Amino acid sequence: MEFQSLSEFIPFSHKPFIVAGPCSAETEEQVYQTALQLSDIQNVKVFRSGIWKPRTRPNSFEGLGEKALPWLVKAAKDHGFFSATEVANAHHVELCLKAGIDILWIGARTTVNPFTVQEIADALQGVDKPVFVKNPVNPDIELWVGAIERIYYTGNCKIAAVHRGFSTAEKYEYRNAPTWEIPIELKRRFPKLPLICDPSHITGKRGLLQKVSQKALDLDVDGLMIETHIDPDRALSDAQQQITPQQLTQLLSKLVYKQQEGITQREHAELEKLRQEIDELDEKIIALLANRMHISERIGGYKKQHQMTILQLERWRHIFESRTRQGSSLGLSERFLQKFLENLHKESIKRQEGE
Ligand code: PEP
Ligand code: MN
Fold first, then answer.
1. Most buried pick, 95, 237, 268, 328, via CB within 10 A?
2. What is the per-residue pLDDT for 312?
3. Which residues are CB-contacts of 107 (< 8 A; sequence separation ≥ 6)?
4. Distance between CA atoms of 219 and 186, rounded to whole angstroms?
5. How far apart (Å, rounded) are the C-alpha atoms in residues 204 and 191?
6. Domains and CATH numbers, the chain
7. Alpha-carbon distance values, 326 to 19, 284, 337, 344 (Å)
8. 108 CB near ligand 1 (under 6 Å)
9. Among 34, 164, 227, which is best to mutate for testing ligand 1, by the most ligand atoms less than 8 A from CB?
10. Per-residue pLDDT reduced to its tens digit, 242-295
11. Residue of minimum CA distance from atom 4 in ligand 1
């Protein structure tokens, strides 16, 4: 597939390319003021705002709909930005085209559904506007690729993929697990397809934005989408993850392009990819260990209540043997496993004793 590069369809001169703006349009003033404050940041090229909001639970703020479209268009135009919003059906597409929105994006909850993506693609037939395709909520690269293909087959090569993380059953540090190997695989399959990372929806918390934005840059993404609000704590959606335009300026100033003499960024990115995978696995291992210790505490409580001894030798022998067997079969050394299990057991006993 022949994709255009991001700078071919959205010219920009300051890297990283930034998409910023509120999660949702709430009032005309809020939309306009956010764009005004963002206009000081040279990296920001696209002004985003949700008009129709897919909310997990009913009775949450579901966006203002059609009436907010002209606010977004005007705020973007007055400050030299491209406007962007999410479309979730053909009707949204029609309304956006009529209102003059520059860029449409397909949200994570839509990418999972090929019927809806096809409906949107049909409404976009022959339309020459950039389309961003967010990853599906579930970690299935084929659905992501499928949605990109459906848009591409309308004759559109102005497409960017947006990595916003994946929903997982086990909750850990992030709102949506980055699972970096999926965007990396997407890049491997389509090296020319622009890739934008959305750390706001990955982290769900503003405190983690710097770290994840840096990781994304280390992976050589083309840009970042960061939710920005003039008064984030009072935002009607995604309050915890939004930042002010001033905080966005600070975040951008602290980002570093890791580049070493003699090593091109792309070569370096190869090493970074592997490190990202290690970082993510370590985060998961630590979260799992913490989880295991919480369960140990509950077991400790149970044993106390039933006047059982903390150390149950038979059980410990079973754990030791079965885990060593499993680990050995996966290529881990027996000595390493034994040391690890002994430590794990020691800590678990302490937790059961309530120390
Ligand atoms: C958003 O960008 O505000 C949004 C709803 O994103 P996602 O589809 O990634 O959840
Ligand atoms: Mn949001």
1. 237
2. 81
3. 54, 86, 88, 134
4. 12
5. 28
6. 6-254 (3.20.20.70), 267-353 (1.20.59.10)
7. 46, 19, 10, 16
8. yes
9. 164
10. 999 999 999 999 999 775 444 455 667 778 888 888 998 999 999 999 999 999
11. 107
